[in-house]
Predict the 3D structure of the following.
Amino acid sequence: MSLVETDSGYKPPFELEPEPVSSGYEPSLKRSSEDHRLEALQPTGIPILDKVTGGGFPRPSAIALMGPIGSGKSSLVRELVTNFIRQGCSLLYYCIDDPADIVKLGLEDHHIAVDKIEAEGRLEFVDMFSLGAQKLAESLPKMDPSEILEETLKFQDLLSYGRNFALKPGMGPKIIIMDSITPFFLLTEARKVFQYVQVMRFATRIARAVTIAILHTEVVDESLENATANLADGVIEMKKRTGEIMLKGGTMKVLRIGRNPIMSRGYFYQITQQGIVFSNSPVL
């Protein structure tokens, strides 16, 4: 006999919300109205993602967005950033894989007035890509490229750049984007990865923020991928479609989120000029 079937007074934190059998949907997780431990949730603004997460990302939480290069992780992040800004959130964006001007163009493609929102103090960029390019220009031919990376990409710099943002009062819900953490993990051993992820979680809680960190799989050691997935508060996996050259897309799964340990089924997505588009029906 399960706890639910007894008279112990136990109430499950999640209830299955039934869907018509013919609809092709999986049952969604609806938070029980009698659960006194309800988490603060930040809606993602993407209907299928809000459905499978039970309403959005817990706040605070550190979310790992994992998948191979070219699977659409940055496209998903920019869609999320657009929605968070429209919800009135304040956002800190670490530009590591691409320079800030490229990221800004991507947001402007989503009809976000980047300069205006920056002037309001609700959007800040840390352009670590450009810092690395500047370091390269100043150092060649004196330094080896690997030494330049080690000098530029220091984890403590991430913390120092984000400290003022985390402690800034009077702001809306805070979002931190790290696009991506892969270069840091390529330059360090597994022991430090555990420390980095834990420190990232500490900082997220101090700021009461949602932190989304992109990690490119298949280029770092598998033990580092596992460490990140196990320590993060939530994990979203994106796998790109194979065999169809003309279509750019793949499958997304929410492997874990907050107190919900149940893995979602996969959902097809396609990357278009208008953004990332998800199928409403799970993969059979």
